[in-house]
């Protein structure tokens, strides 16, 4: 059963509630993390916790729970939920304040950890591949709100998603403010051309996905040529294969972008091989 840890208390999903004066709600002032567990084991919890504490540090928010303890709480949540396969959500907000956004009015951050489940697309979509359109809404400029901070401000990504929904697409490709390819609304992008795998560099201002890092390791293990470099939509249109990675999405092929069929229009051999390796990796709990 889904279960929630809220400021030190274990609650069920319907009784876990926060104040309407919480600045996470009023201003999106906070950070979050999304992890996944397979066969009872949490995949790369340390990497996710590192990113959570880094995101909090970047917005000058001190998480009042020591890192080790938050890891223990996470594991205990898994035990209490009884779930084998789960999606975990950690949220830390600036806390309860008044109606102004001065963060000094918030005495104590709100700390939340949810153990539940997630499914982004039905199984058939994983088989046929995603129909994607480019969103007109770019990701935030890297010197405005760094896309590497996993903050509670997801409006650009949600607006992009709405564009995709309006266009009848499964997902959107987001560009950065200079027009380079950045990421999906909640996934990182990889392309394959003539056996070479490429993905946009993290320093360029995208979220450095934990799944992305794991897939880069699998690419190295498979001995495939790989480069992190800036990409344009042209590189995606003309790729032999393209796929997205994310904790919630896992690894999913792109079938088309803006009406251009990618490669053979079905999951390509390198994507399939990496997907199989990824499934082995998460089940091994590595
Ligand atoms: N880019 C962005 C902007 C993300 O939000 C990823 C990449 C993938 O990162 P990981 O570490 O998960 O490999 C994310 C993760 C959703 C959803 O509903 C997606 C995320 C978070 C919450 C919900 O698709 N994103």
What spatial form do the alpha-carbon principal axes imply?
Answer: globular
- Mind telling me the C-alpha Rg? 19 Å
- Which parts are unreliable, with pLDDT below 50 for 5 consecutive residues or more? none
* Biggest sheet details: 9 strands, mixed
Oligomer: single chain
In what range is the share of β-strand residues?
25-35%
- List the ligand species: 3-[O-phosphonopyridoxyl]--amino-benzoic acid
Order of H and E elements: EEHEEHHEEHEHEEEEHEHEEEH
Q: Would you identify the CATH H-level superfamily of the largest domain?
A: D-amino Acid Aminotransferase, subunit A, domain 2
Compute the separation of the termini in Å: 25 Å
Number of strands: 15
Q: What do we call the CATH topology of the largest domain? A: D-amino Acid Aminotransferase, Chain A, domain 2
Give the rounded overall mean pLDDT: 96
Tell me the count of domains: 2
* CATH architecture descriptor of the largest domain: Alpha-Beta Barrel
Relative helix content: 25-40%
Structural class: alpha+beta
* Number of continuous helical runs: 8
Regarding CATH, which class of the largest domain?
Alpha Beta
